[in-house]
Structure formats: C-alpha cells, structure tokens
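Below is how a single chain appears once it has passed through the pipeline. First comes the sequence as given, then the structure the pipeline wrote out for it. We keep one example in the README because the format questions we get most often are answered faster by looking than by reading.
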Amino acid sequence: MALITLRQLLDHAAENSYGVPAFNINNMEQGLAIMEAAKACDAPVIIQASRGARNYANDIMLAKMIEALAAIYPDIPLCMHQDHGNNEATCMTAIRHGFTSVMMDGSLEGDAKTPASYDYNVDITERVASMAHWVGASVEGELGVLGSLETGEGEAEDGHGAVGKLDHSQLLTDPDQAVAFVKKTQVDALAIACGTSHGAYKFSRKPDGEILAMSVIEAIHKKLPDTHLVMHGSSSVPQELQDIINAHGGAMPQTFGVPVEEIVRGIKMGVRKVNIDTDCRMAMTGQFRRVAEENKAEFDPRKFLKPAMDAMRDLCRDRFEAFGTAGHASKIKVIPMDDMAKRYADGSLAPKTN
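Resulting structure:
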C-alpha cells in the first residue's frame, strides 16, 4: 500500500511547484472516482473526511475503504486526512483509524461554530501537533475564520462553520500573526482565510480582489516561503454543472465559486493543498437528476451511480491536470510514518519561520 503523510506529499509538491486537490468523500463511489482519475493521470491523492462523513459512513468502514483503495491502486500515493477536526479527540481517533494526517481547526471553539481566540487556537493546535508528530502523522492548522467578505458570515458544512457576523480582521489571516502561529504550533500546513467559504454559494458575482483576497496569500507566502498553504472552500462551482442540475429539475440560483485560474495563481504563491467538495457533489447530483428524469422507470442504483462516478472522475482529473498534480505519483517514494516520526523527533521537519 502507498499511504503517505500530508507533510511528505506537500514537501514534494513544493519542490516541484504543483498543488494537490484534496477531495472530500462519504462513500465508496466517491473514493473510486478519485482514484480512477488519479490513475489515469499519474497523480498523488489527498482524500479527506469531515466529522459529518465519519458519522455518516462509520470510522471502521472509512478505514477499511481507504485500505482497499490503497491496495487496489498501490502505485498511487494516498494521504487520508481528517478535515476540520474540532478537538483533540477527533484528531486522535482519526489517526487511530488509519488517517495519516489531521486538521486541527482551532479557528473555532469545540462547538465548531464560535470563533475562537488566537491563544485558544495556538494552544489546542500545538497540543495536537505534538501528539500527532509522535506517531509520524501530519497536522494542518487554520488561522483566520472561513467566511464571505461580501456578507461577513460563515457557511456551515457538515455542522462546521462560524455563526454570526464576522469582521474583516477575522475573515482575513494576518501575515505577521501567521508567522508566530506556525513557529509556536509547528504545523505542517497552514489553512488561511482569504474570502473563500464552504458550499456552493460563495460569491454573488465573479470574484475580484474585493471579495477574494489573493493578496493575503501572496503576503503570507513572502513571510513564510517554506510553509505549505491551504485554500479551503475552493470549489469552482462550474456553470456547466449548475446548468445540468437545473436542466433536470434542479433549482440552484446563480452562484459563483473560486475560479480555477485563481487557484492556479495561488499555487504559484505557495498554496499546496486545495480543498474541493461541492464540485464533486454537484457532478454526481447532476447525473442522478439526469438519469431520474430521462429514465423514469429506472430503479437500479448502479444505473444512477455509474454515470455519477464517471462525472466525478472527469472533474477530479481536470483538477489534477490544472493544478500540476498529474505526472507526479510515480516520482514519489513513500516514507513510512515511523520514519516520519523519527524526523519530527530529531527536528529535521521543524518549520522554517525565519
């Protein structure tokens, strides 16, 4: 099996100037679609599961599914990542079930709704990083709160998202504070706030610098050139997927996501991990609706799921190719987690913040 830690994968991405899409899953079909796309273009993979996905699918089922995917596709380096962990227990149980990487999102308190203080965020993220690194697992932290610069509000995803109005100081990561945060917590990757948000309804118009602050990414990268940056809420919400859904009985209002070209620009400024969930859901849902409308007598779930998987596979391959991930899987020699733990212990993986 080729299970890889997030740190090793993003180190390789930085050395070779590419980014890696991180796709959320809830079931077998999504996992197979991602891995088929990766196989087709020789791309390493980040698959991630939210707390909601773990509740939906069951930890044991997810763990065995990842084992199976790694066995079916042994030549594809696969990182299994906990998305938006809300406390130590969430992160540690993920590692216990085979996750090679966890996100400790201390930007919100344990209820995953209330914006947290900087000190709270540092304290809990530092604790999780210390524990995870003992066994060689990677840790992603978050500084700043995900939310819309248009509305000043967050968007809940699987029960995770800030509630209430947020000001710009919360919605945009401070570059100087980012340096201190990385140095104190020792995280392997830093998720930043720049105006992106969860879900399909990110922007009411094609985003510009006022509502998608790519300048924040640039400023942080200048101060932390060796830190792997992460863009959350970065589905592009393609117009063609909106059209397919609405052409077959859907009623999605017009909306705009994060343009692929802006993500590619971010990759040039140190973004190494790009979270994508909504696009995959839309790709599959469009095919569910199409089959249901065109074949009203159909009742075999496989007739719905196969075209849905194909649509998600094609979307994932498009992102692998756009982000430069394609062609790199076969170049990576996976380092076991035990060896990564030794590297954390001897300080060779300590973040460079000077």
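The chain has a mean pLDDT of 95.

See the next section for the split statistics.
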